[in-house]
């Protein structure tokens, strides 16, 4: 027997095994309609594109290339030379720093404590050359490495080098020789980025006023730069096993503090916070739309129509009893007998002629 239902079902069939099967012409429906699924997919794709665009636009290089600033940071001088462990001599230039004469360099002995009498003339000449270094010559001076000064002292001796490192100790000393024109000098000890625990000894005529002249600096040592002449590899008393250590000695005109570079706020830096807020608002709006879809789906699941259209169908026949037609007629007869009987007066003229089948006249 086929039954027509208002929910799209065309009938109910009872098979031979007694199982009930439903037939429907409609396709199974998911939790949300196809239209809503496409809309939700577009929302997710848009969210991904917004996040990708925020990541790209959040970088300062993107806006710097798109809108270049007129006051860009100056580049380093192209003529400045860097000496590494394979380069021992700076390239020649017309205004390059002067080099100490050979006979003075030959008078200097390495691995000796202090400055001997035979090295005094070379010391004063080197200090005079360091004092007369110009700004252009300082730019021309090669950058030295700790390993270069320690491994090749004969090659580096008598030339101007630039070093940059942490100031570990600074003190002002008075020279004992009364005949010299230099009365006071600054005695400094530095550590370079590649020196590890090794120190570099610097003797300078001047030092910046903001540098602390308080002996050892254990915490927050300032970064300084020095341009001077490498004098020798000097021995000094230390807490090593044999009581002596070796450090390069440089004679310089001035010890300068390395100040932090001045940062200029660019247009990209100004736009980055606004882009962040815009991305946050966009993500919040998308989240609100997704939440509205989820809440509407939850409301739809609680409706009766959703329960009826949800597949697979699971009909329940609990509480349903089966009666035969004979049992139904017997119940109707019993109900009729229980009703009060009505008295009827039968007249012969009102009876039917059962024999002839014709009513009397």
Main sheet record: 5 strands, mixed, barrel
Low-confidence region ranges: 1-17, 71-92
State the end-to-end distance: 51 Å
> Numbering strands along the chain, what is their spatial order in the largest sheet?
5-6-7-10-9
| SSE order, one letter for each helix or strand | EEHHHEHHEHHEEEEEEHHH
Number of helices: 10
Gyration radius, rounded: 52 Å
Q: Kindly name the structural category.
A: alpha/beta
Helix content: 25-40%
| Average of pLDDT | 75
Number of strands: 10
Task: Tell me what you see in this structure.
The N terminus is likely disordered. The protein has a five-stranded mixed β-barrel with strand order 5-6-7-10-9. Strands 1-2 form a two-stranded antiparallel ribbon. The longest helix has 35 residues. β1 and β2 form a beta hairpin. α2 packs across α8. 33% of the residues lie in helices and 21% in strands. It is of the alpha/beta class and 361 residues long. The chain contains ten helices and ten strands.
How are the SSEs placed, and which strands pair?
Layout: E1 9-14, E2 20-24, H1 34-57, H2 60-66, H3 102-106, E3 112-113, H4 120-131, H5 135-140, E4 142-143, H6 146-151, H7 153-156, E5 160-174, E6 184-191, E7 200-207, E8 215-216, E9 223-237, E10 244-257, H8 267-301, H9 304-309, H10 325-337
Parallel strand pairs: 3-9, 4-5, 7-10
Antiparallel strand pairs: 1-2, 5-6, 5-8, 5-9, 6-7, 9-10
